[in-house]
Amino acid sequence: MVFCYIGLGSNLGNRKENIKAAIKKLSGLKGVKVIKISKFIETNPVGGPTHQPKFINAAVKIDTKISPPNLLKKIKKIEIQLGRIKTIVNGPRVIDLDILLYQDKIIKTRNLEIPHPRLFKRSFVMGPLAEIL
After folding, report:
1. CB-based burial label for 101 (10 Å; 0-12, 13-18, 19+)
2. Where are the domains of the chain?
3. CB 3.0–4.6 Å: which of 55, 82, 100, 103 could bond 11 by disulfide?
4. Candidates 3.20.190.10, 3.30.70.560, 3.50.50.60, 1.25.40.80; CATH matching 2-100+123-132
5. pLDDT, tens digit, for every residue of 24-75?
């Protein structure tokens, strides 16, 4: 088992419930144990179309046996299950899940980059992450 940190965000529908539902689905994955959950914070959207609703953001620390590529597949499946439809880059979304850190791994592939490439540029990610580190 290794530690992994996942960022969560939602700016459509019942944002807090969307985050809670995603955390519940994460904790239901075989090979995943949710260890810590940050406070939920409300933030303005960064990038993407103007006039989007504000986001609720959070981060979770998990203990997992799942490899980074497989974990990415599983969290993208959770996004779809919760109603995520990708339309516009950085556009409004019901739920967004990102692998922020995975133990001490550095990965850069076409589909996955760890640490998350914009991790250190986004206070809405760094605040919740710092809280649970």
Report:
1. buried
2. 2-100+123-132
3. 55
4. 3.30.70.560
5. 999 999 999 999 999 999 998 887 777 899 999 999 999 999 999 999 999 9
Active site residues: 84, 93, 96, 98
Handedness of CA 66, 68, 73, 74 (dihedral sign): positive
Length of the chain: 133
Q: Report CA 57 to chain centroid distance, whole Å.
A: 8
Q: Where are the beta strands (DSSP E) in 1-133?
A: 2-10, 32-37, 41-43, 55-64, 96-102, 107-108, 113-114
Helix residue ranges per DSSP H, 1-133: 15-27, 68-81, 123-132
The amino acid that residue 116 corresponds to is H
